[in-house]
Design a protein that fits this description.
By secondary structure, this protein is mostly helical. It has a domain of 120 residues: Tetratricopeptide repeat domain (Serine Threonine Protein Phosphatase 5, Tetratricopeptide repeat, Alpha Horseshoe), CATH 1.25.40.10. Helix content is 66%, strand content 0%. It contains 16 helices and no strands. The longest helix is centred in the N-terminal third of the chain and has 32 residues. It is elongated. The relative contact order is 0.08.
């Protein structure tokens, strides 16, 4: 029992020492975080950690830099780098965090040169989560909306070609989703109203869809079954004119002949386009089952893991407007500022808290030694007077 008590006591002492050493270590860490040029060092360490996959460590360092140096020119870039860290780490939760951080950046800095890149990255967050067209199209719709908003807010962006390319990719997926539902309604459910609605969605919104001819053919059949031959004939004419190499050309001609309509000649320009751009059999099979694959960037807006850390830091400094070298203030050097003093003043209207002390002669401010000697002299004279009074009373009772 005695041995157990000794062990418990020793453990308590060890834990006390460990706690003290931990506090000392934390204190040293906070003190080391402050210093001239330390914001750049913290940012560099954070970028290096993120490049190596230590995302949590990198975010801690970035937050330390932001909280310790709120006036640093790298603060804005550090916040954007935190968003990049979530994007690079991936996963639905991290991508959601990245989108929130990117959106806050655009809200606070809508005129920043990087704002359009940030909005494209927000669209890519959803594009990375788009799967097969027969799945939930929510992310595809959000990506399309984000890309349209980017073009609306930044019509003169130099990334317009990339945005339009991404738009075509995501609209291909959305159109394929509508086509799959239309096929299901027409072939299995025999729901003509559902087929009409889905095919009209494609015809009205996605004119560049790779299987636009199939949408026309399905819509024509649906309208013919509902005895609207005029609308069906317009669909068939459009199919034969613009898609002369379509697999539905022969059936479209037969249907037009059945309606007693003339068969139109194909557009010569479309014939040339069809020969040069007609998709192969394998691409049709792949698109039928897997849909369009979208290549999204694996780089952040600021952090690119293919670059070296120093290259990223140099670019961050340039974008943040930071000086290339942060010169420390020389001890004893005079500094001036025209900014108003924001320190609190006394509310009673008395003397100011700021007291200016100037060098002068000895009479300007008596020294502490002079005051001490004066006090001793006064006490000595008082004691002498008291003694004289007592003697006088003794002589004259």
């Amino acid at each position: 029992m005695k041995a157990v008590k000794i062990m418990i006591l020793a453990l308590a002492i060890a834990l006390s020492f460990a706690a003290c050493s931990g506090k000392a270590k934390n204190k040293i860490t906070l003190e080391e975080a402050k210093g001239p040029g330390r914001d750049k060092e913290l940012y560099r360490d954070a970028v290096d950690a993120i490049r190596k996959g230590a995302f949590d460590k990198g975010r801690i360092l970035l937050n330390t830099m932001i909280n310790t140096y709120p006036e640093s020119p790298l603060v804005k870039i550090a916040k954007l780098s935190i968003a990049d860290s979530f994007y690079l780490e991936g996963g639905s939760k991290n991508l959601a965090q990245a989108e929130v951080a990117y959106r806050e950046f655009v809200e606070f800095f809508p005129d920043d040169p990087l704002a359009d890149d940030v909005m494209i990255k927000m669209a890519e967050i959803h594009l990375r989560q788009v799967q097969s067209p027969d799945r939930d199209p929510t992310h595809a719709k959000l990506a399309e909306r984000q890309l349209k908003e980017t073009l609306r807010r930044y019509p003169n962006t130099d990334r317009k070609d990339l945005i339009e390319e991404r738009m075509a990719d995501v609209q291909e997926i959305l159109a394929m989703h509508e086509l799959k539902v239309a096929r299901f309604n027409f072939e299995l459910r025999q729901a003509m109203a559902g087929t009409q609605m889905r095919t009209e969605e494609i015809l009205n919104k996605y004119p560049n869809f790779s299987r636009f001819d199939e949408a026309l053919w399905l819509h024509a059949q649906t309208m013919a079954i509902q005895e609207d031959t005029e609308t069906a004939s317009r669909d068939l004419n459009r199919l034969l004119t613009n898609y002369p190499k379509s697999e539905y050309v022969d059936d479209a001609k037969k249907m037009l002949t059945k309606f007693g309509k003339a068969v139109p000649e194909p557009d010569p320009a479309k014939v040339t386009d069809a020969k040069s751009n007609a998709p192969g059999v394998m691409s049709k099979v792949t698109g039928l089952f897997l849909g369009t694959h979208i290549d999204t960037s694996n780089k952040g807006v600021i952090i690119d893991r293919e670059l070296k850390t120093d290259e990223i830091v140099a670019r961050a400094q340039e974008l943040g407007g930071a000086a290339k070298a942060d010169a420390p203030v020389t001890p004893g050097a005079e500094t001036t500022s025209n900014a108003p003093d924001a320190r609190p003043r006394r509310a009673n209207g008395g003397a100011s808290q700021d007291v200016e002390v100037k060098a002068g002669s000895a009479t300007a401010a008596p020294s502490s030694t002079t005051k001490k000697d004066s006090n001793k002299k006064d006490k000595k004279d008082k004691k002498k007077n008291d003694n004289d009074g007592a003697a006088k009373v003794l002589r004259n009772p």
